[in-house]
């Protein structure tokens, strides 16, 4: 419905847009009542989403406190540059260990006779000459004890259960940064600190605020083609071949990674470094054609 519906990265931007648009749509100012009500509903939903989104931050340093979960995840350059939605498997809650059933010991490991009940599973007590048998609390009536700790929960009786979740990445993530997700985001007992490991790309590289792209172009493409296919964050695009004739870097303003500054966002530049490819070997037939081509240019 609205032209900027999915472009807001913070509450400040959203509220500014709301104040401007609500005046245009208000029925008292000639606006459509149905569109006005739809906009109000959209704003409330967006406000809720962004409020929750504020629980996700980019940290330059790693100083965990309280209960936390730390791990390293691999991200693509495209994911961090465009702030895409990424799937993770994260341990959101604790459950009783299914291997040891919460007993903290390995149920398939070695056993030993209970030293309290001597393997009987009960204790005999005498009260005024009357014998009473009660279940042994030390071995819980089994008559034996497991010696080895559970290999899955390491003797805790509980394990962290992983679930597949989706996170809209905040702008500005870089190699070595920490993606911090507050425990309130998932209603989890602990915060999440996810260290960013960037997957190497064959021709993309992040450098400061900009995206560097090495474009491998055959020499004849510049001479014979009007347009050359170049990889960008949005996909393959056709650009005029003549801009690469000098062999110098070509800058595409505002086509690089998204950046967050002072609660607002902007985009860096895409800088194309052309790498002109020449054949390593040329056969005699190709040489003759090239010589003929050079002579034609001189005419």
From TrEMBL:
Single GO BP term: protein folding
Superkingdom per UniProt: Bacteria
KW Transferase (keyword) present: no
Gene3D superfamilies from the UniProt entry: DnaJ domain (1.10.287.110), Heat shock protein DnaJ, cysteine-rich domain (2.10.230.10), Urease metallochaperone UreE, N-terminal domain (2.60.260.20)
ZnF (CR-type) residues: 84-162
Keyword list, A-Z: DNA replication, Metal-binding, Stress response, Zinc, Zinc-finger
Designated name of the protein: CR-type domain-containing protein
The organism of origin for this protein: Caldimicrobium thiodismutans
């Amino acid at each position: 419905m609205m032209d900027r519906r999915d472009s807001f990265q913070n509450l400040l931007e959203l509220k500014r847009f709301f104040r401007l648009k609500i005046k245009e749509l208000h029925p008292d100012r000639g606006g459509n009542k149905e569109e006005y009500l739809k906009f109000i509903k959209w704003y409330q939903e967006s406000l809720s989403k962004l409020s929750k989104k504020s629980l996700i931050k980019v940290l330059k340093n790693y100083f965990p406190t309280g209960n936390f979960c730390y791990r390293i995840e691999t991200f693509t350059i495209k994911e961090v540059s465009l702030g895409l939605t990424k799937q993770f498997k994260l341990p959101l809650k604790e459950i009783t260990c299914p291997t040891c059933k919460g007993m903290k010991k390995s149920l398939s490991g070695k056993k030993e006779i209970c030293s309290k009940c001597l393997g009987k599973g009960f204790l005999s007590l005498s009260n005024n000459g009357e014998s009473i048998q009660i279940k042994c609390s030390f071995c819980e009536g089994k008559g034996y004890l497991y010696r080895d700790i559970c290999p899955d929960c390491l003797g805790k009786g509980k394990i962290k259960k992983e679930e597949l979740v989706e996170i809209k990445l905040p702008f500005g993530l870089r190699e070595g940064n920490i993606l911090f997700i507050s425990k309130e985001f998932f209603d989890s007992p602990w915060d999440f600190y996810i260290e960013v490991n960037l997957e190497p790309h064959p021709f993309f590289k992040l450098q400061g605020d900009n995206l560097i792209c090495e474009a491998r172009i055959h020499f004849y493409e510049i001479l014979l083609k009007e347009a050359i296919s170049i990889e960008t964050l949005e996909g393959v695009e056709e650009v005029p071949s003549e801009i690469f004739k000098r062999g110098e870097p070509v800058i595409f303003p505002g086509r690089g990674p998204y950046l967050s500054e002072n609660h607002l966002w902007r985009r860096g530049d895409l800088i194309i470094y052309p790498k002109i490819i020449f054949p390593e070997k040329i056969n005699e037939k190709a040489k003759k054609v090239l010589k003929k081509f050079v002579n034609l240019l001189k005419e």
